[in-house]
Amino acid sequence: MRNFYAIYRKEMGHYFVSPIAYVFIGIFLFLSAYFFNFFLTVVSQQAMQMELQGMQFGMPQQVDVPSEVMRAFFGLLSTLILFFTPILTMGIFAEERKRGTMELLMTSPISEVQIVLGKFFASLTLYAIMLLPTASYLALVFLRSEPTPPWRMLLAGYAGIMLLGGSLLALGEFISSLTENQLIAAVLTFAAFLFVWVLDLGRNASSGVGSVLQYLSVIRHYDDFTKGIVDTSSLIYYTSFIVFFVFLTVRSIDSMRWRRA
Q1: pLDDT tens-digit series, residues 180-234
Q2: What is the pTM of this model?
Q3: How far apart are CA 125 and CA 120, in angstroms?
Q4: Which listed residue, of 70, 93, 175, 215, carries a Cα 20 to 30 Å from 138's Cα?
């Protein structure tokens, strides 16, 4: 545990010792705040128009503004992390190899599992810090709504975005362990993200293949969380995804140690 914490603390210090993390988080929060305000304005205007039209025809229509805004916003977050997480993961191992500090890790008494998990949880912590301020946007809408929507929808949505982000971070960490070029790591990671993202498009294929592709798509499982649904199959999928790519990263680092032996 001490070795794990040492790697974790080292990575967190590396993130915040330079302005990169602050700029990274600042750009993400600016974009998320801008689009949240846009979604809130559009949905509110649509709700008012539908209510006025309903009153004219004697059939008022109710629009669940908080739920509509929340689903649109969580959809935006999933799109943003598609572009932001490759930047977050590209240097996890690639930079270590480029600077030559990977040899120090390889000759240290720290195990491969501790190295991989320390770096993974550090990136996951930065990811959570990045997301945390966005919860205030939706919390404000929930508190101002009458009646107040169920909080489980908000909690389920953030559970989904954390699991989705954790899955992409695990995949990105594995790809970063394969190269010492950060740009190549970022491009390959984005391509891999895009591949697992668009698998859901194959749902219109033949019944058997379509079902498999739909299940393997990371975004298909995420949709359930945005509706406030926590499905056991989605929890198993994301957990398996994370464990699988963490395992591959450990094997990649292990092979690197054997090559240097």
Answers
A1: 888 898 899 999 988 888 776 655 555 666 677 777 788 888 988 988 888 898 9
A2: 0.89
A3: 9
A4: 215
